[in-house]
Design goal:
This protein has about 120 residues and is α+β, with helices and mostly antiparallel strands. About 20% of the residues lie in helices and about 50% in strands. The protein has a single domain, classed as PH-domain like. It contains 1 helix and 8 strands. The strands form 2 sheets. It has a 4-stranded antiparallel β-sheet with strand order 1-2-3-4. A 4-stranded antiparallel β-sheet has the order 5-6-8-7, with helices on one face. The two termini are about 30 Å apart.
Length: about 120
């Protein structure tokens, strides 16, 4: 699966945004991101990487808006998204431009299938 660019706006009351890529690979969501100054646009900080096991997610969906969409991930625990920017409790919302909507739809479908398989395996 291809990487999907995302942003997380309004970090620290709008002083920062995060820009990055998300990719599904081997039952993990791989996130790479860096912070960008929200006022003058100068980059700040190094690229950070995180792996989120799909098994730790409870829901993944694409929230549609007119010009952009949000890939919304809901975790099974507050610790899953610990130290990630823009997290609200156990929910991480990644802003996806309209241009990458189809890729995001595909990712939602693939993650949903993986979640279903994991749940079926736990029942057996």
């Amino acid at each position: 699966m291809q990487s999907i660019p995302f942003t997380i706006p309004n970090i620290n009351h709008g002083f920062f945004t995060a820009e990055g890529l998300i990719k599904l690979e081997d039952e993990y969501l791989h996130l790479e991101y860096h912070y960008k100054d929200g006022i003058i646009g100068a980059y700040k900080g190094d690229v950070e990487r995180r792996q989120i096991p799909v098994s730790k997610l409870e829901e993944v969906r694409l929230k549609r808006r007119l010009f952009s969409h949000y890939l919304v991930l809901r975790a099974s625990s507050l610790t899953v998204f610990e130290d990630l920017p823009g997290v609200d409790g156990s929910v991480l919302s990644l802003k996806i431009s309209r241009k990458y909507r189809r890729q995001a739809d595909r990712m939602v479908s693939e993650v949903s299938i993986l979640l279903s398989e994991i749940q079926l395996d736990s029942i057996e």
